[in-house]
Amino acid sequence: MNSPFKTGSMGNREPFSAFICDESALDVLRPVVIEMGWQPEKCNKGGLRNAIQSLSIAASPAILMVDLSESGDPLNDINALAEVCEPGTVVIAVGQVNDVRLYRDLLASGIHDYLLKPLSAGQLRDALTQAQAVFASPRNAEGESDQEHVATAIVGTRGGVGASTLATSLAWLFASEHHRSTALLDLDVHFGTGALSLDLEPGRGLTDAIENPSRIDGLFIERAMIRANDNLAIMSAEAPINSPLMTDGTAFLQLQEEFRQAFDMTVVDLPRNMLINFPHLLTDVNVVTLVTELTLASARDTIRILSWLKQNAPACHPLIVCNKMQPGSAEISKADFEASIERKINFQVAFDQKAAANAAKLGQTFIEANKSSKTVAPIREIGKMIVGVAEDDGASIEEAGQKSSMLGKFDLKSLLGSSPKKDKASAEPAE
Predict the structure, then answer these.
(1) 0.90 exceeded by the pTM?
(2) How many CA atoms lie within 13 A of 384 on its CB side?
(3) Which of 93, 179, 293, 355 has the fewest CB within 10 Å, making it most exposed?
(4) Distance between CA atoms of residues 156 and 90, nearest Å
C-alpha cells in the first residue's frame, strides 16, 4: 500500500475513493471530497470487505478511505486489502475502536492514518491533505535526480545565539529557493522551536523514533514527519520536561540514514550538549555551521568545538557564522575573535529585532518573513555555500576559513583583564 517518500505523482489513477459503512459519516465526507476537487460519487456505501471486492476487479485509487467498523478482525482484513491494492496507494482507515495498540498495529501494517468516529469535516480535511502531500514527495521519481545528498548540522556555541533561527531559515531556503527536498531534524527534544518557528504542531514522530528505533524505515518517515510545504518536512518534539532523554543515539543515526535515502538535503538543529553524548551524529555530516557571537564565552567555546570537530568529525567542513552583530556594541572585536580561533568568520548577520518579531508574528521562518531585508542576504550566501559543498567538496568553505589575522595566536586569558574593543558589524558576508 503506502510506499516510502519516493512516491511520485498520482499519474492516471483515480485520485480518491471511499468505502464507508454509515450514511452519517458519508454526509460529512462528501462535502470535503467536493472541496478537494474530487467526485462525491466515489464515496461508496460499505466497509472494508466491500473495498476488497471492488478493488479486486478495478484499479486502486491514489488515496483510499476504508471503514473498519463492521470488521471483526481489522488487521487480518487490512492484510487482505493489501493484496488487492496497487503499490503506492495511500490508505486511510476509519473506525470506532479507540485503542492505541490497534492504532499502532494498523500504522505498522502500512496504513497512512486512522480516524476515529464520529468524523468531523476538519479532521477529514487535514487527513486528506496530508495524504495528498505524499504525492508531492520531497524526492522525484527513482533515478530522476543524481544530486548528492548534503547534510548540515547547525550548532550554537552558546545558548541564544540564534542557531535554531538559522536552521529553520536554511531549511526553508533549500526547499523553496533551491528547490531541494529537505528534512529538518530538531534534536532539542524537550525545548525545540523548529516546529514553532514554522507554525506547526511537532507531532510524536521524534519521540516515537526514540522509543522504538526498530520501527524507523521509509514508511515511518512518511507518517511521522510534518510537512511545512511540498519540499520541506520537519521532525521535532515537545517531550514532557519530566521525561529524561533515554537513548543511545541509535534512533538519530537511523533517521539520518533514512533522510539520505528520501531527501536531497538534511538540516540538523543540534544542541551543543549532543556533541558530548552522541559524537557519532556528525560522522556523515558535510557541513557543521557554528553560530557564534563576539563574546569571550563564544570565542572560548568556538575554539573548543573546532578542536572537537577536528578530532571527532574530520570529514566535515566547519562554517563560522557570527550572528546578531551590532555596530559598536561587541564585547570583543572581530579581529581579535578571528585571531583567537585562528580562522576567519565566514559570515556575519546583523541584529534585527524588528525582523525577528515580524517572523514570530507571521509564524514564518526569519528569511521567509523578511525576504526583501538586507539582513537575510548573508543567510542566502550561507545556503549557496552549503548547497555547493557537493560540487567543490567544501573548497569554498576551506578557502573562506583560513587564518586571516597577522596578530598571531590570540591569548584569550589576557583579554579577560582588558577593555572591550569596538567593532563595526556588517550584514554582508565576511571577506
Answers:
(1) no
(2) 10
(3) 179
(4) 39
